Amino acid sequence: MASSERKRPRQARAQETVRAILEATVQILDREGLEAATTTRIAEVAGVSIGSLYQYFSHRDAILNALQNREFERTLELMQKVLAEGNLGEEPEKTIKAALHGLAELYLASPGLHRVLAIEGLRVAKAEHVHAFDLRVIEVVRHFLASTEAPIQTENVGAAAFLVFQTVRAAMLSFLLERPPGLDIDRLIEELTRLLIGYLLGPSRPNTKKIAARRVTKRRS
């Protein structure tokens, strides 16, 4: 199990060194895979000496742990921002899609990293740290559901928040790992949106405008 950085980078130059190491690791994971991401290779791509790398990270798993913590914070910030701006009662589809698109962009910006973290995450980090992150995100979702005026179909918003978060995360990570044929990210978001709206708000009502438009199109053809 990995520890975090060996020492905290306090000066600007030290912080830049750590950023370079983290970004180099992401590049290697995306382009070459986990096996290529040795500390020697990471230092080479980062443009730092191996000694400088070991000042801040005792081994590769410590770098992966730092990257996982960074992605945790990015995910939490994204969810807080999107849900603070969303309105499930008036614009359920727009609100849910905004969250899903944000998560998709986060994952697809560095797919190699997220594939590795999906498999190695619990090995390189303490389980309680991962659990603590889950609880923080679930609480953001729970608060959003509890404060909405939308007619949520369950009284247990805590359970709903847990199921929504875990369903979305599992689907997104499985998509990254498996790349199922016939399913691109846009279709995944569409299907997840339908799933979540149905679960949270009940069966969707027919969109009369769309139905009427389809009927007109059929008559013209």
From TrEMBL:
Any keyword DNA-binding?
A: yes
Origin superkingdom: Bacteria
Q: Does the keyword DNA-binding apply?
A: yes
Question: What protein name is recorded for this chain?
Answer: Transcriptional regulator, TetR family
InterPro entries per UniProt: Homeodomain-like_sf, HTH-type_TetR-like_transc_reg, HTH_TetR, TetR_C_15
Enumerate the Pfam families for this protein. TetR_C_15, TetR_N
Annotated ranges, domain HTH tetR-type: 15-75
Organism, per UniProt? Labilithrix luteola
Entry keywords, A to Z? DNA-binding
Q: Which PANTHER family match?
A: HTH-TYPE TRANSCRIPTIONAL REGULATOR PKSA (PTHR30055:SF226), HTH-TYPE TRANSCRIPTIONAL REGULATOR RUTR (PTHR30055)
**Which ranges of the sequence are annotated as binding DNA?**
38-57
Q: Which GO terms describe its molecular function?
A: DNA-binding transcription factor activity; transcription cis-regulatory region binding
